[in-house]
Amino acid sequence: MPLRDSPGFPSRPPVARLAAALAVCACACWPLVARSQAIVPSTLVQVVPGANAVALEGTLKGPNLGARDYVVRLEGGRTMRVALETKSPDTGFAVLDPYGGTIHRNQANRGNSWSGRLPEPGEYRVRVTLSDEAAQRAAGAAYTLRISVER
């Protein structure tokens, strides 16, 4: 005889069982949600189209400062160039569109430059990151990020 039909173990209504299951899932997934929504410090960058690249120097240090955003406000149709210089094989970058979607993501120590035409006006982000493994072991990395925009 199942436990739920035993005396002292009353059957729960389906809604209560569903609520309990959702609560268990929420608790189990919380570390993943909290990590993905970590606050990433950001810096607004003034880039003049056609001018020399803007050079930005920074340092990342895991686990609390494993990423930094550089925000560039641009008109649509412009071509942006990004280059990352670092001695750390654990450092990479991503270019995010105004809605947070990924336009480009390089792998750490693979192709540390990118160039692309931006389809619409808005705030684009260049996110410099440590790999998850480097951030977890509290590694650090110095870098220089160069951003330029064609006329």
Keywords:
globular, 41% strand, Jelly Rolls, 151 residues, 2 helices
Task: Just name the CATH architecture of the largest domain.
Answer: Sandwich
Cα end-to-end separation: 77 Å
- Give the structural class: alpha+beta
List the domain count as a whole number. 2
Q: Gyration radius, to the nearest Å? A: 23 Å
Give average pLDDT, whole number.
83
Structure description:
- The chain has helices at 14-36, 132-136; strands at 42-45, 54-61, 67-74, 79-86, 91-96, 102-105, 113-117, 122-130, 140-149.
- The protein has 151 residues and is α+β, with helices and mostly antiparallel strands.
- It folds into two domains: 3-36; 42-149, Jelly Rolls.
- Strand 5 and strand 6 form a beta hairpin.
- The longest helix has 23 residues, at 14-36.
- The radius of gyration is 23 Å and the shape is globular.
Helix and strand topology:
Blueprint: H1 14-36, E1 42-45, E2 54-61, E3 67-74, E4 79-86, E5 91-96, E6 102-105, E7 113-117, E8 122-130, H2 132-136, E9 140-149
Parallel strand pairs: 1-3
Antiparallel strand pairs: 2-9, 3-8, 4-7, 4-9, 5-6, 5-8
Would you kindly provide a brief summary of this structure?
The protein has 151 residues and is α+β, with helices and mostly antiparallel strands.
